[in-house]
């Protein structure tokens, strides 16, 4: 029998998706009005135990709004990770601010220790404001990204942020469902620990609405202003009065219908992804030169993406392994290129980026869809062990 193609990550739409979308179409509420949007917002807020949620067209749009409502303005600075997807950083530019790139720790998320050293040694804290000595600009916020569903060390991040009066924006686009299970933040979900958090429902995320995003916060003021900005900043519904420049960022009823059906299955997806991760881990354990990046202790991750570390002792390097797997119908991808090395950001400040460079050179993402079965995983792992045993 011919081997089937194993994709990296594809959506899983086998629940009530078609039913709910059909309802939306039949009701003729297909745009940004309609009952599914509010219901989806309530559903996500309840699941992550946040005060409220505001839907948007994408995670990127959500991050744009998050920066605005956190008061990040033209010529301010924002501390951001270098090892992540570029959509986490582009919104900093949308508001005219400047990113300062930080290194990662061994969870692949932003390193709070290095970030603290940066604030301590490269900045001055005067009258409640953190000023970057190098640029003379004010540092206003930190964007953390819970990379691949792995929780950033929020205990340390929040500590540094309160010490220096910085807002914390959580890019939880990859981490819906990830939460602490012990420690100070036990029970708290990624996205709800900082000032404001954002999820994405893009096609490759743990749940999808085709495209879409959600802002969550425990601060009612931030939520109210987010809703206002995502709906054209209308201060009077009837007379079209607008009190500031807003955006057309609200999600449609069609997207939300998909979202509600996906939310019904989220815990199931996570369960499957966790089981699959553990099987991979068990099988990869015996292969010299390979290991999987683990999720933070004291948390229940959502196991969204699996990161395989390819050591120097493995017979193939990152690109060699990806090529070999592709030849055998297994789709993989390298981790993102560092954002501070991307053309729009090469002139921005990057602070001691070291570990991120190593991870960039050694990590391959392997198939992780919730549709994956045991046979698929065994096949991938057989391929992984082939170059060693050859
Ligand atoms: C997917 C993603 C985004 C953007 O979400 P969209 O809904 O695609 O706009 C932002 N940051 C990270 C880290 C992501 O993975």
Essential attributes:
Aspartate Aminotransferase, domain 2; LegC-like; pyridoxal phosphate binding; binds pyridoxal-5'-phosphate; 2 domains; 9-stranded mixed sheet; 4-stranded antiparallel sheet; transferase; 390 residues; 17 strands; alpha+beta; globular; Aspartate Aminotransferase, domain 1
CATH third-level topology of the largest domain: Aspartate Aminotransferase, domain 2
Give the biggest beta sheet: 9 strands, mixed
Q: How large is the count of helical segments?
A: 12
Distance between the termini: 23 Å
GO molecular function: pyridoxal phosphate binding; transaminase activity
Protein name: LegC family aminotransferase
GO biological process, one term: polysaccharide biosynthetic process
Active site: 205
Furnish the topology, listing elements before pairings.
Blueprint (H helix, E strand, L loop, with lengths): L16 H11 L7 H13 L4 E5 L2 H11 L7 E5 L8 H5 L3 E5 L9 H11 E4 L2 E4 L5 E8 L8 H10 L3 E5 L7 E2 L15 E5 L12 E5 L2 H11 L3 E3 L4 E2 L10 H11 L2 H19 L5 E3 L6 E2 L5 E5 L7 H10 L5 E2 L20 H8 E4 L7 H16 L1
Parallel strand pairs: 2-3, 2-6, 6-7, 7-9
Antiparallel strand pairs: 1-10, 4-5, 5-6, 8-14, 9-10, 11-12, 13-15, 15-17, 16-17
Bound molecules: pyridoxal-5'-phosphate (PLP).
Describe, in plain words, how this protein is organized in 3D.
The chain has 390 residues and is an alpha+beta fold. The protein has 2 domains: 17-263, Aspartate Aminotransferase, domain 2, CATH 3.40.640; 266-389, Aspartate Aminotransferase, domain 1, CATH 3.90.1150.10. The chain is built from 12 helices and 17 strands. It has helices at residues 17-27, 35-47, 59-69, 90-94, 112-122, 154-163, 220-230, 253-263, 266-284, 318-327, 355-362, 374-389, and strands spanning 52-56, 77-81, 98-102, 123-126, 129-132, 138-145, 167-171, 179-180, 196-200, 213-217, 234-236, 241-242, 290-292, 299-300, 306-310, 333-334, 363-366. Strands 1, 2, 3, 4, 5, 6, 7, 9 and 10 form a 9-stranded mixed beta sheet that branches. Strands 13-15-17-16 form a 4-stranded antiparallel beta sheet. Strand 11 (234-236) and strand 12 (241-242) form a beta hairpin. Helix 1 (17-27) runs antiparallel to helix 8 (253-263), helix 5 (112-122) packs parallel to helix 6 and helix 9 packs parallel to helix 12 (374-389). It is globular. The two termini are 23 Å apart. 48% of the residues are buried. The model has no long low-confidence stretch (mean pLDDT 97). The protein binds pyridoxal-5'-phosphate. Pyridoxal-5'-phosphate binds next to helix 3. Keywords: Aminotransferase, Pyridoxal phosphate, Transferase. Belongs to the DegT/DnrJ/EryC1 family.
């Amino acid at each position: 029998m011919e081997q089937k193609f194993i994709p990296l990550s594809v959506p899983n739409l086998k629940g009530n998706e078609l039913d709910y979308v059909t309802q939306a179409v039949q009701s003729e509420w297909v745009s940004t009005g309609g009952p599914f949007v509010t219901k989806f917002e309530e559903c996500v807020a309840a699941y992550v135990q946040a005060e409220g949620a505001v839907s948007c067209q994408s995670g990127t749009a959500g991050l744009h709004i998050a920066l605005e409502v956190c008061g990040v303005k033209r010529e301010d600075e924002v501390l951001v990770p270098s090892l992540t997807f570029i959509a986490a950083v582009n919104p900093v530019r949308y508001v005219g601010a400047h990113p300062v790139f930080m290194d990662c720790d061994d969870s692949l998320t932003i390193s709070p220790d290095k970030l603290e050293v940066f604030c301590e040694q490269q900045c001055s804290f005067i009258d409640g404001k953190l000023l970057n000595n190098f640029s003379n600009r004010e540092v206003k916020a930190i964007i953390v990204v819970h990379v691949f569903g792995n929780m950033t060390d929020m205990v340390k991040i929040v500590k540094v942020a309160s010490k220096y009066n910085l807002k914390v924006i959580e890019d939880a686009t990859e981490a819906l469902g990830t939460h602490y299970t012990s420690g100070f933040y036990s029970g708290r979900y990624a996205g709800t620990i900082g000032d404001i958090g954002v999820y994405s429902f893009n096609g490759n995320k743990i749940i999808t609405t085709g495209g879409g995003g959600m802002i969550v916060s425990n601060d009612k003021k931030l939520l109210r202003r987010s809703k206002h900005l995502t709906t054209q900043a209308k201060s009077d519904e009837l007379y079209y009065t607008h009190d500031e420049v807003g955006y057309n960022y609200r999600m449609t009823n069609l997207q939300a219908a998909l979202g509600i059906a996906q939310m019904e299955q989220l815990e199931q997806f996570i369960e499957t992804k966790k089981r699959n991760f553990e099987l991979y881990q068990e099988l990869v354990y015996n292969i010299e030169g390979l290991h999987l990046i683990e999720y933070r202790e004291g948390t229940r991750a959502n196991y969204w993406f699996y990161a395989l570390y390819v050591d120097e002792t493995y017979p193939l390097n990152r690109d060699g392994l990806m090529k070999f797997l592709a030849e055998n119908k297994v789709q993989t991808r390298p981790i993102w290129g560092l954002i501070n090395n991307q053309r729009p950001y090469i002139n921005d400040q990057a602070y001691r980026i070291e570990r991120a460079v190593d991870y960039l050179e050694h990590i391959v993402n392997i198939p992780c869809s919730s549709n994956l079965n045991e046979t698929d995983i065994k096949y991938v792992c057989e391929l992984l062990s082939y170059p060693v045993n050859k």
